[in-house]
Automatic annotation (TrEMBL):
InterPro entries: RFT1 (IPR007594)
Pathway info: Protein modification; protein glycosylation
Protein name in the entry: Protein RFT1 homolog
GO cellular component: endoplasmic reticulum membrane
Species, as recorded: Amphibalanus amphitrite (Striped barnacle)
């Protein structure tokens, strides 16, 4: 309940911060031309209001995560992403609607630790402090970490806006390609990372050696996510032009969008690896380690800003993605060093970080598929897009076959997961 009280305090804080940033966006930064958009001012204030509205669901988000309502988290994330304009209102409706339904349909499986929504708000218990000092200190550490991660993850957009490194048309093209290239991160990587964090935070004790079960799960997650990222790099290079041609026609393929999307594919690989490493790192870090990590994040922010300035001048819009890659590589290095330094229980037979190394058969299949796809783009794609797609399908099937042959344990996990879903349906 004290944690829910702290989450409730986020509402007035978010209202004040959103109002201040909206004023900054409207009065201190450059504005688009009126012929480009006539509703820019309204859009800024609507975005600020949506942020405040979204914080209304945060106490229930915490409750849902504590009760392991994983599907609810995945479904609301997908719905908000698909309906960005009304996403915050949809988030509130989903969580409060689910809470009301569980109150209405009582059973031993869905009983909640609260009896009304008022219990999720600020409550003062006689003889007890309103806020737990340890939780408050840990929340402050995570807040600083979240702020730094936001600057590192979305920093190029702030730099674009503040220093006008790209004009608005170039920024629009960059956003289109970046959003298209990050679909895998939004719909696939993010749910996996959130569920992995819930698992690790409940099965791993902070400051204890890595258990056999947690080490095996971390190894398998790193192997699966790295393979997905390698597939994105292998086929993304040769099929970026075709994808943009189908998505936006000649308007997108004529400019630097193809190079942007190819660079974005490499960034997706780094996102896949970094997400799993960070969720495990944050699940096992103690508070003093989190504070130390935050200090390292400040240094990473400086490296990111410097690399952004250098790469943008050299490569234009592609430089932002290259700077993001440098940023992600530094974050992976920090987390890798931390995880590598953790003690392992004697029952751990395979170091978890070996999951980053693809099997030889899969690596050979990926290299061969990449070369064949690149040759197909040069020789077949100009005359027949269908033949180019057929080559990619055959190469993809070969990569899947190699992965199935080399990773029988992952295949067995997928079969068990699918079988459980079929039984429930």
């Amino acid at each position: 309940m004290r944690l829910a009280t702290m989450a409730t305090l986020a509402r007035p804080v978010s209202a004040a911060v959103s109002a201040a940033l909206a004023g900054l966006w409207l009065h201190a930064l450059s504005q688009p031309a009126p012929e480009v958009t006539s509703e820019y001012r309204l859009g800024v204030w609507v975005t600020a209001a949506m942020v405040v509205l979204e914080t209304a669901a945060q106490p229930l988000v915490i409750l849902a995560q504590a009760m392991l309502f994983v599907k609810l988290k995945v479904n609301d994330g997908g719905g908000v992403t698909q309906r960005r304009g009304t996403g915050s209102a949809l988030l509130v409706v989903i969580y409060y609607g689910t809470l009301l339904l569980l109150w209405h349909v009582r059973s031993p499986d869905n009983c909640l630790p609260v009896k009304s929504a008022s219990e999720l708000g600020p409550r003062l218990v006689p003889g007890q402090p309103a806020l737990d000092r340890d939780q408050l200190a840990l929340t402050w550490s995570f807040f600083k970490q979240g702020l730094l991660k936001q600057l590192l993850t979305e920093g190029e957009r702030y730099l674009m806006t503040a220093f006008h490194l790209l004009d608005f048309s170039e920024q629009g093209l960059y956003d289109v390609v970046a959003n298209l290239g990050s679909l895998a991160a939004r719909f696939l990587f993010q749910p996996v990372e959130e569920n992995a964090y819930v698992y690790f935070s409940r099965t791993v004790e902070r400051g204890k050696p890595v258990s056999a079960a947690a080490g095996r799960v971390l190894h398998d997650l790193l192997r699966a996510m790295s393979l997905l990222g390698l597939v994105a790099v292998t086929f993304g290079w040769s099929y970026s032009h075709l994808l943009l041609r189908l998505y936006g026609g000649a308007l997108l393929t004529a400019g630097p969008a193809v190079s942007l999307l190819r660079a974005q594919c490499a960034y997706v690989l780094l996102l896949a690896v970094n997400g799993v490493l960070e969720c495990y790192t944050f699940a096992v870090m103690r508070q003093e380690q989190i504070n130390g990590y935050n200090r390292k994040m400040v240094l990473l922010s400086v490296i990111f800003v410097i690399s952004t300035g250098i790469f943008t001048r050299l490569f234009g819009g592609v430089g932002f993605i290259l700077a993001n890659c440098v940023n992600m590589l530094t974050r992976i290095y920090v987390c890798y060093r931390f995880v590598a330094g953790l003690p392992l229980e004697p029952a751990v037979s395979v170091p978890p970080l070996l999951g980053l190394r693809p099997p030889a058969a899969v690596a050979a299949a990926l290299v061969t598929a990449g070369l064949l796809a690149a040759g197909s783009e040069s020789w077949l794609y100009p005359s027949s897009a269908a033949a180019h797609v057929a080559v990619g399908a055959l190469c993809g099937a070969a990569v899947v076959a190699a992965a199935v042959y080399s990773e029988p344990r992952l295949l067995q996990a997928v079969r068990e997961r699918v079988g459980d879903k079929l039984k429930r349906s």
